[in-house]
């Protein structure tokens, strides 16, 4: 990742966490503590209705306002696109480098879209004072695909995701949990009259009742029958890997898992991949573990992205199939955000060394 400058990199910094009461924001605060982030102060921010709330870690939530956002070196955001669009530029103008977990700035040409292990050098190009965190599904596959791209030259991939309820936040997990007891009481009807069970269930977060079910739609319509969640995978993968012509065919599916996204990937390369070389490349890549049968529940709460079912394609000798699993709240969101803040600090890109916001 390059040499680390002295001086500024060793200075404790002041950190804002915006969206601190949500599932990802809570994870961000936990990670900042567990990873001994070099902060002189960490201030949690949330909506006005949460202002004054004392969190389990003893911190008091601050309401976000023009007079409360001054004096920060780094601001990490997980409060949704609308909040990010309004407040990220204001934090940047006040001198902070913003690491944003929403989709608000990901495709902005002047905002780096960064996975810590994949393209960290892009952090130096944050001319707006904002760095974007990728979508959680894209994030998980970027690590193994980067490892394989370096070995064989990635040309295209087909990805089918199996995304956890937690991808929709705490409310997504709550809706799934609330449906399970009722569905269990109707176990026999799930076998012979599932439609009637679904008709009696309420849902507002997922596109259909999720308990004991699989929903082949999440996100909003993006044209040609694809959702915006699927198109994020297309555009973000190209930007992160620096492959503007990369062919991507995505399908995103919601499954009744609390936390942990899984993605089946068929990747096609310029050079015919050797399975032993591919496995060695994955095992050597930071943040990746190889597990023959990875499952999302097994890796819930773990930092690493797990890769399994690595096998040659039956039709194309230049293609490999692999199954990827990652905790969408950790590496998919909070962990990468904190890692980017750590890199910004280590490289002297905060405070006096920060890129100039325009």
UniProtKB/TrEMBL annotation:
Task: Write the record's keywords in alphabetical order, separated by commas.
Answer: Amino-acid biosynthesis, Diaminopimelate biosynthesis, Lysine biosynthesis, Methionine biosynthesis, NADP, Oxidoreductase, Threonine biosynthesis
Gene3D superfamilies, alphabetized: Dihydrodipicolinate Reductase, domain 2 (3.30.360.10), NAD(P)-binding Rossmann-like Domain (3.40.50.720)
> Which segments constitute the Semialdehyde dehydrogenase NAD-binding domain?
14-126
Q: According to the UniProt entry, what is the EC number of this protein?
A: 1.2.1.11
Q: Which reaction does it catalyse?
A: L-aspartate 4-semialdehyde + phosphate + NADP(+) = 4-phospho-L-aspartate + NADPH + H(+)
Q: In which pathway does it act?
A: Amino-acid biosynthesis; L-lysine biosynthesis via DAP pathway; (S)-tetrahydrodipicolinate from L-aspartate: step 2/4; Amino-acid biosynthesis; L-threonine biosynthesis; L-threonine from L-aspartate: step 2/5; Amino-acid biosynthesis; L-methionine biosynthesis via de novo pathway; L-homoserine from L-aspartate: step 2/3
Which GO MF term does the entry hold, naming one? Answer: aspartate-semialdehyde dehydrogenase activity
Domain of life of the native organism: Bacteria
Enzyme superclass (EC): oxidoreductase
Catalytic residues (positions): 136 (acyl-thioester intermediate), 261 (proton acceptor)
Task: Summarize the subunit comment.
Answer: Homodimer.
**Name of the protein in its database record:** Aspartate-semialdehyde dehydrogenase
Species assigned in the record? Paraconexibacter antarcticus
Gene name, please? asd
């Amino acid at each position: 990742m390059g040499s680390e400058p002295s001086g500024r990199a060793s200075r404790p910094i002041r950190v804002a966490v915006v969206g601190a009461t949500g599932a990802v924001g809570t994870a961000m605060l936990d990670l900042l503590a567990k990873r001994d982030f070099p902060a002189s102060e960490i201030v949690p921010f949330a909506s006005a209705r949460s202002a004054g709330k004392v969190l389990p870690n003893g911190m008091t939530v601050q309401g976000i306002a023009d007079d409360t956002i001054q004096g920060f070196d780094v601001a990490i955001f997980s409060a949704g696109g609308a909040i990010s669009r309004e407040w990220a530029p204001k934090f940047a103008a006040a001198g902070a480098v913003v690491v944003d977990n929403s989709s608000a700035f990901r495709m902005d040409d002047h905002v780096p879209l960064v996975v810590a292990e994949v393209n960290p050098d892009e952090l130096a190009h944050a001319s707006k004072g904002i760095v974007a965190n990728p979508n959680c599904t894209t994030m998980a596959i970027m690590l193994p695909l980067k490892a394989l791209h370096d070995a064989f030259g990635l040309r295209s991939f087909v990805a089918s995701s199996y995304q956890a309820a937690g991808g929709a936040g705490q409310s997504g997990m709550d809706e799934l949990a609330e449906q399970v007891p009722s569905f269990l009481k109707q176990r026999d009807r799930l076998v012979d009259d599932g439609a009637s069970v679904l008709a009696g269930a309420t849902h507002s977060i997922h596109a259909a009742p999720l308990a004991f079910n699989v929903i082949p739609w999440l996100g909003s319509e993006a044209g040609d029958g694809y959702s915006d969640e699927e198109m994020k995978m297309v555009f973000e993968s190209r930007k992160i890997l620096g492959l503007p012509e990369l062919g991507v065919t995505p399908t995103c599916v919601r499954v009744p898992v609390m936390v942990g996204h899984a993605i089946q990937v068929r990747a096609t390369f310029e050079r015919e991949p050797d399975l032993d070389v591919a496995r060695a490349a994955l095992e050597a890549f930071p943040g990746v573990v190889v597990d023959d049968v990875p499952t999302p529940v097994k890796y819930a709460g773990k930092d690493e992205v797990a890769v399994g079912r690595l096998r040659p394609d039956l039709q194309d000798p230049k293609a490999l199939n692999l199954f990827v699993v990652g905790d969408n709240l950790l590496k998919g969101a909070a962990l990468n955000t904190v890692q980017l803040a750590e890199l910004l600090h280590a490289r002297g890109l905060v405070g006096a060394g920060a890129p100039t916001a325009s």
